[in-house]
Design the sequence.
């Protein structure tokens, strides 16, 4: 069954999702663009605990508005009954001063953690597939010692 015929995608693209991006200037001097899309469980936003969320980090070359990411975002929102953020980050390679000694995953994960904090999220579940799995481990590493955020 192709995505076009998948009934789970029927409600995607409507009022239950929002898309945006932010740019973060990090201490290393790197600039990172964080692309996001929010997914809500069926029933809408009004009953949600905004301090809890699922963070979905898509795979290689995938964006928050790709069909696979949208399908997964919607399903994670419905199954967890929590807002789900699909997040993809991209470092501006021209902003890197020391290109030989920079950990791109770490810098992108730092920007993602700043985004999570800016949303007031205090408890998260992190999921990722393909290279998003690597990003999930990097993000969990950064957040493990953060007293303000619980990683489930």
Sequence:
């Amino acid at each position: 069954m192709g995505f076009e015929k998948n009934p789970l995608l029927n409600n995607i693209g409507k009022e239950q999702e929002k898309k945006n991006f932010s740019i973060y200037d990090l201490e290393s001097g790197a600039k990172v663009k964080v692309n996001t899309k929010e997914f809500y469980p069926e029933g809408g936003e009004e009953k949600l605990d905004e301090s809890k969320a699922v963070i979905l980090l898509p795979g290689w070359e995938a964006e928050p508005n790709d069909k696979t990411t949208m399908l997964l975002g919607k399903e994670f929102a419905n199954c967890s009954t929590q807002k789900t953020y699909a997040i993809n980050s991209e470092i501006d390679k021209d902003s890197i001063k020391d290109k030989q000694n920079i950990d791109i995953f770490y810098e992108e994960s730092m920007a993602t953690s700043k985004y999570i904090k800016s949303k007031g999220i205090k408890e998260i579940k992190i999921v990722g597939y393909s290279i998003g799995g690597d990003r999930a481990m990097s993000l969990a590493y950064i957040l493990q010692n953060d007293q303000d955020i619980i990683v489930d």
